[in-house]
DNA sequence: CTGTAACTCAACCCGGATGGTAGACAATAG
DNA sequence: CTATTGTCTACCATCCGGGTTGAGTTACAG
């Protein structure tokens, strides 16, 4: 799962992308529009500023803006930045690779092989879509509509 | 990321799949072969037994075995079972759907639309591979080999 | 040159999840 | 009847996630 913070960061960046070229956007506007706790958003935007993703200016007409044109930022970049990796296990990450603890040798781990496939597909999607791209929205599921057939296995309670 | 527990569960199930049809496999064997802390593995296997995934027997020649033929268990099933969902955000889950807190309306959330694509691709991979399938192992990355070109964005330190 | 509306930063905080361990108990083979 | 192996509940320590506090800084307005 993406952390709440990562999700906030993505939405904030989308907001800034939408207003790109329009001068500084104030934190309060972003927070209100994106439904993000104001104080928390300050820490997120400051972090993004430290990373060089957004510019900022204080004072009366201050605010934030994208320091990089939205066409040069992919969603993959954003997630890597906030979360470190796109992969589902550390050993399947290509940029933030790390050995899993208590695992087999990497070359012998089937889980890793699988998760590497997943991470590469995920990257193919997320690195292919840029902050400037329009995104086709998807309506909420109307209860059991729209969903694939139930999986073979549906045991337990959760 | 998958939790450590989920990863252990997957490896344990792989182990049982490999020994399917050979009678009960003892916990100690699994723990040793898969490098999983013995005590922790007991809780995991018990849980899997409660879910009906594995059978168990106590006593001298006791042990665990798959209660379902490995050809009928996909990796997707396993992850759903242990983790609840394949998706990266709750609102993009198809079987364990849940509204994200502090978000936009689902129909207006670009992040959700994106993450739904990712989850569907992930599901396509993980629901297509069964515990009985051979998996082509992938050798460890030889430092910077084998990786895609560095992403456009490589800022900050981590 | 002062007031005030912004952003900045370090510090803290709380609750819940994660990753285990302890230990008493139950079944089963021999 | 005893050794072996699984079961179950409880507990625990640590970390991380999701924030908040509050004091500081910059910048524009007048």
CATH architecture of the domain at 4-70 in chain A: Orthogonal Bundle
Oligomeric grouping of the chains? homodimer
Rounded to an integer in angstroms, the radius of gyration calculated over CA atoms of chain A is 19 Å
* CATH superfamily annotation of the domain at 4-70 in chain A: Winged helix-like DNA-binding domain superfamily/Winged helix DNA-binding domain
Give the low-confidence spans of chain A.
154-158
What percent strand of chain A? 5-15%
Span between termini of chain A = 17 Å
**Count of helical stretches of chain A:** 5
Biggest chain-to-chain interface with counts: A-B, 77 and 77 residues
Helix content estimate of chain A: 25-40%
Q: Specify the overall morphology of chain A.
A: elongated
Strand order of the largest sheet of chain A: 1-2
CATH class of the domain at 4-70 in chain A: Mainly Alpha
